[in-house]
Amino acid sequence: MNLKKITDITEADYGCEEHTDGPHAVLVFEDGERLEVSERWIADQGIKEGKYIWIRDDGSFLKAVRVVGAIIMVEMNGEKDNERRRMIFATQRGYGEMKDGWEFPGGKIEAGETPEEAIVREIKEELDTVIKVEKYVDTIEYDYPEFHLSMDCFLCSILEGDLVLKEHEAAKWLTKENLDTVDWLPADVTILDEVRQLF
User: Fold this and answer.
1) What's this model's pTM, rounded to 2 decimal places?
2) d(C-alpha 55, C-alpha 166), whole Å
3) Structural domains of the chain in order of their starting residue, each with its CATH number
4) 3-state secondary structure of 60
5) What is the pLDDT of residues 96-141, one digit of tens each?
């Protein structure tokens, strides 16, 4: 697994070696591996203990952001009297660099939380709705230009609430057939084939 949790940050032992990009430090990971990086990069990226780094196969690395996403599925009445259709809930971002993109709602995992606890909390905060995690679906690993996104996705059902938009611009219920009618964010696109299999 290329996602590494930082357990310690120590000073680099240079000896006579000089670095053109300033002082360096060593990131120590849970598995004991170590990675030397510039102190400037640590400061610019807000790196600290407990955060994550994504190390690519070629040895390059990115700050990693660990989040959770909820694939909220319900059964609704269709156009015909006794027809029931499964639908999933998609939201449109109302803030940040990816504003207006469509995504599965969710957010960051806080210290001490399991991913399942995080998704229940995030949906309560963002949508004023209590959900039940039905099952783990997959983890998206996606490189954006400035960071790596690691998103655990869960199939969820609604226990209580009306999905009130507190942070999003808009929302839609989508069927299997019209999943591609919104402009999904690049990371979310990568799980759509698996989502289709849930219907």
Assistant:
1) 0.84
2) 35
3) 3-59 (no CATH), 66-137+150-196 (3.90.79.10)
4) coil
5) 788 899 999 999 999 889 999 999 999 999 999 999 999 999 999 9
